[in-house]
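F.,

This is the one I mentioned.
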């Protein structure tokens, strides 16, 4: 029996490696066809750089002291962000598939978000959870910063939501359970995400959820924060009302996310910002008749004006609607070790 399980695990790893390499080859062919020439460098990072970094793209060997772009084969663009692009890449030595996020220093400096990037790197590089996107390492040159990230083959969740318009109970409950488990892990590490939304979530090889963007996250050992941050439709009342906040802001955002999964739009969406603010502070929203009673109950228990009255993440995972509809096992999180205070 044990030998059979070991063989199955080995076959599964080999299958995953094969699939990822096929994906990379297809992506590389597509990128060459699109460019029309191997010498065309448009929308492609520079070919050489020397810089310092931490991490190992393979995730199985000792941390490497220095990374450079020469360590990677670069494939097709995976996405475009405000400060740069994300590319499919393969670490040459290990053949390990990653996503390489390329950020332009000039744009980061103009927006005044260098400290935000440093915090994102510091926090995300310490997190190890199946539903949190791994940050393996980083390096930089004179003009760019490169983040070596876990590759999520099924792409962006918000695009799946756009295609489906809204998710059914089973899919929504499964995603919410995975998100709750990941947030529980983050909170045990004293990390508050503060910007939960579909655009910041990716999907792994088996369709599992991956929290991907920690740009607004904070390591908060002192618990209470005052910064207004995040996305308008997902802001909790305490942020809008300029009150101190803690990890319970993520509980509110989880309720908004659950609503958007089931309805296709956020609950407090309005034509103008001021009206959205007003709806949030009054917790004024309507649940369509097609949303099940169990789902509506969970949403109502998360969207509470008083943060202390919001359902805990453990309560979310034990909620009857989650238990009934979640299609994947919900593991018990072992006690975590807090991140060191920097």
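My design for it:
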């Amino acid at each position: 029996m044990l030998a059979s399980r070991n063989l199955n695990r080995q076959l599964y790893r080999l299958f995953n490696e094969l699939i990822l390499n096929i994906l990379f080859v297809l992506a590389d062919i597509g990128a060459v066809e699109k460019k029309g020439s191997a010498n065309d460098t448009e929308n492609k990072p520079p070919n050489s750089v020397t810089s310092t970094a931490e991490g190992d793209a393979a995730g199985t060997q000792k941390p490497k002291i220095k990374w450079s772009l020469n360590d990677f084969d670069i494939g097709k663009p995976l996405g475009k962000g405000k400060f740069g692009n994300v590319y499919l890449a393969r670490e040459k030595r290990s053949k390990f598939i990653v996503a390489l996020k390329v950020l332009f220093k000039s744009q980061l400096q103009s927006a005044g978000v260098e400290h935000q990037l440093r915090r994102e790197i510091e926090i995300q590089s310490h997190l190890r959870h199946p539903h949190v996107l791994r940050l393996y390492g980083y390096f930089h040159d004179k003009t760019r910063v490169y983040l070596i990230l876990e590759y999520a083959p099924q792409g962006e969740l918000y695009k799946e939501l756009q295609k489906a318009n809204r998710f059914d109970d089973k899919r929504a409950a499964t995603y919410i359970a995975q998100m709750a488990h990941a947030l529980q892990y983050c909170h045990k590490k004293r990390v508050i995400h503060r910007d939960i939304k579909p655009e910041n979530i990716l999907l792994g090889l088996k369709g599992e959820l991956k929290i991907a963007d920690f740009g607004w996250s904070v390591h908060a050992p002192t618990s209470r924060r005052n910064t207004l941050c995040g996305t308008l439709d997902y802001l909790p009342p305490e942020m809008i009302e300029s009150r101190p906040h803690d990890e319970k802001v993520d509980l509110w955002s989880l309720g908004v996310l659950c609503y958007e999964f089931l309805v296709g739009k956020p609950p407090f969406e309005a034509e103008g910002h001021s009206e959205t603010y007003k709806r949030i502070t009054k917790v004024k929203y309507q649940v369509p008749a097609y949303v099940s009673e169990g789902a509506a109950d969970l949403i109502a228990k998360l969207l509470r004006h008083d943060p202390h009255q919001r359902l805990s993440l453990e309560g979310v995972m034990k909620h009857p609607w989650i238990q009934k509809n979640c299609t994947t096992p919900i593991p018990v999180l072992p006690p975590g070790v807090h991140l060191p205070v920097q």
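The first helix runs from residue 2 to 35.

Talk soon.
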